[in-house]
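Session log. Operator J.P. requested a structure for one protein chain; no other inputs attached. Running the standard single-chain path with token output.
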Amino acid sequence: MEDTVRWSLVTAIAPIAWGTNYFVTHEYLPAGHPLYGAVFRALPAGLLLLALTRRLPHGAWWWRSLLLGVCNMGAFFALIYVASQLLPVSLASTIMSAAPFTLALFA
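Structure written below.
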């Protein structure tokens, strides 16, 4: 029983983090600068991963890394930033927290 409760609490971290993402972006980051918001979110994680691996890409992986970074991090985080600035926080949080239920319905 104790393991079930612990894993339920661990599983609840992701929806809580996504929900607070919109509140923090809407309230504390400057409006109208989505690329800065994307940098604030992606750069610390990228630097941490670079520090952990201590290897840079080589050969064809330089342009692949750039393309993947722009698509996955730059565009995605910038669009999340724009959405959190334009949508009310309660609506954005509700949509993101309902995503697991939506996927369960599709399954």
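Operator note: The chain has one domain: 2-106.
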